[in-house]
Amino acid sequence: MHLECVGCGAEYGVDEVIYTCRRCGDLLDVRYDYGDISRKLTYADWERRPQGVWRYREVLPIRDSFNVVTLNEGATGLHPCPRLGSELGLKKLYVKNEGENPTGSFKDRGMTVGVTKALELNVNTVVCASTGNTSASLAAYAAKAGLRCLVLIPSGKVALGKLAQAMMYGAKVVAVRGNFDDALSMVRELAASSSLYLLNSINPFRLEGQKTASYEVWEQLAAEVPGTVILPVGNAGNISAYWKGFKELQALGFADKLPRMVGVQALGACPIVRAVEMKRLSVEPVKDVQTLASAIRIGNPVNWRKALNAFYESKGTAVVVADEEIVEAQKLLARLEGVFTEPAGAASIAALKKLREMGVIQPEETLVCVATGHGLKDPETALKVCAQPVEVDADLEALRKVAGVQI
């Protein structure tokens, strides 16, 4: 097991505090000896363990004897969605509801590994920049581990549900007068010049936890790889992690095929979509990012290279959706399937609807849409886009009229 630069191939040890390649500055990836692991590992080994992220510890970068920092993350539901599928003309549609994680988002998968690694590296303070979910998750796992936690957020641009979590878990919250990209740039410089351990998705160990969702999807589909997986894309770490997870299943001999990866960005924050549409090998950052889906309101995604690799290797694509389409999809998922996801999580459903109308998605495909966070993360948006409660006097006749009940 070692760290390897995705650009120049330089190698580093997994016990180093390092985020990017010292030679070329590119991203790092954790590499394993899959041949050795597959000779020692059987599926029965996993079946004997509790469900969750640490079920797959052979492919996680932590020493076997180390006590992990966990809140029982992972093991989220893969929900069959027959009513939504019927609406869209699809027979095998599933939603992976990551809002079921302890702090209400997929970030917990990464933080259990990242914070455990921080302890293994003898770190005492962790830090991140965040649009909301990362700060909530890091603050929770830092609290569990007894670590100090600092989070930077873009001032006035974080949903209150997420901000409340970070504050309640005891993190020191600093609001930066700027956007997420400004906050991330600052926190990267701070981590480079201090002993603070950075746990944004540029940290390769964090993405190792997030890839376990792919393993779960494979298990939940009875050892089947879906035809297409659709995910919202912000900093682009999660779609990169999913793709790595599926490739590892194939490398370990468990899966015989790979899915098509589809990423979704909001119209006001879509640098990766633009790159894919033009078949570019790099991304042009967007400076003035605007979308109600705050979790993907990012104009300069650090994991763009890994994400582009996922799209091009899987013969997938990236799709842009407007805020209006996101809100419509959020309501559709909630009202047809009882799954309440935050706006960014509904972007995958909005993209599915668009791709179905374009004929890109076929009726017989096995499809997985990822709902990345719980709807209660951003209650303000839900309240704005839904009809307000109807008020009546404390009178039964008035209530019957409003309720449509015959008098």
Please give a structural write-up.
The chain has helices at residues 34-40, 43-47, 82-88, 107-120, 133-145, 160-168, 180-192, 204-210, 212-220, 237-251, 271-277, 304-313, 323-337, 343-358, 379-385, 396-403, and strands at 2-5, 11-12, 28-31, 78-80, 92-97, 125-129, 148-154, 172-176, 197-198, 228-232, 260-266, 317-321, 366-371. The strands form three sheets. Strands 4-5-13-10-11-12 form a six-stranded mixed β-sheet, sandwiched between helices. Strands 8-7-6-9 form a four-stranded parallel β-sheet, with helices on both faces. Strand 1 and strand 2 form a beta hairpin. Helix 8 (204-210) packs across helix 10 and helix 9 (212-220) crosses helix 10. With 407 residues, the protein is an alpha/beta fold. The model has no long low-confidence stretch (mean pLDDT 96). It has a domain at 78-104 and 206-385: Rossmann fold, CATH 3.40.50.1100. The chain is built from 16 helices and 13 strands.
